[in-house]
Amino acid sequence: HGVRQYGYCSRFFHKRILNALCIVSPFDMIEIYEKILSTATELFLSYKENEAKTFLEEIYHHRLPNRGDTIHITTSPVGLYTLKCEYDRRKVLIDSITLLNLSTETIIKIFSSILYEQKLIFIGNELGPLTRLINTFVCLLYPFSWPHTFVPILPALMLDIVQAPTPYIIGILRSCESYLSGNDDFLSQDNSDILIV
User: Fold this and answer.
1) What is the C-alpha radius of gyration for the chain, rounded to an integer number of angstroms?
2) CA 157 vs CA 6, 160, 163, 179: distances in Å
């Protein structure tokens, strides 16, 4: 068994340069890490780079809250900082607004493909909405879970993964969509089990 890793990222322009703050963790706690990254990003954008680094270093050494818990951490840059982890993660991860933008037929087709353990490729223009859409469908599987390859945002340099023979749920940016139509290896294989959304 492989160990699943989760990546969280905040991208922002600071001093006219694109920056990224990234956290890689064995814990699937998007609500916690998004809050931490949001706070650090605000500090960077307020030209408080040293405070942002100190905040991240101090948070790093504290334990994370368990499901249903709230912890309070005192950090020098922001003072008292509260992290709350919902007991039922579906409250945080199911994005009903995203679902309302899809037709009933599309939702049923996606959900059926997931239950049949087919390959799914989600294509979107922006990282945030694409990630929320994919996480929403994976959460809707409850009480089941997706045991196969799960990559909400696949980097362009790793697009060959879509040729994997096993089931997967993968998200790619629309800028990478041409890979699917322009790759002879991908087009030559039987893709009848792949749903592209």
Assistant:
1) 19
2) 18, 8, 14, 11
Do residues 47 and 102 both lie within one domain? no
Quick: pLDDT tens for 85-133.
Answer: 877 666 666 667 777 788 888 888 888 889 999 889 998 888 888 888 8
d(CA 132, CA 37): 16
Shared domain for 102 and 177, answered yes or no, is yes
Instruction: Specify the pLDDT at position 136.
Output: 85
Q: Would residue 175 count as lying in a domain?
A: yes
54 and 129 part of one domain: no
CA distance 4 to 25: 9
- Residue 71 and residue 63: Cα distance in Å, rounded? 9
Count the Cβ atoms, other than its own, within 10 Å of residue 92: 17
pLDDT, residue 187, reads 46
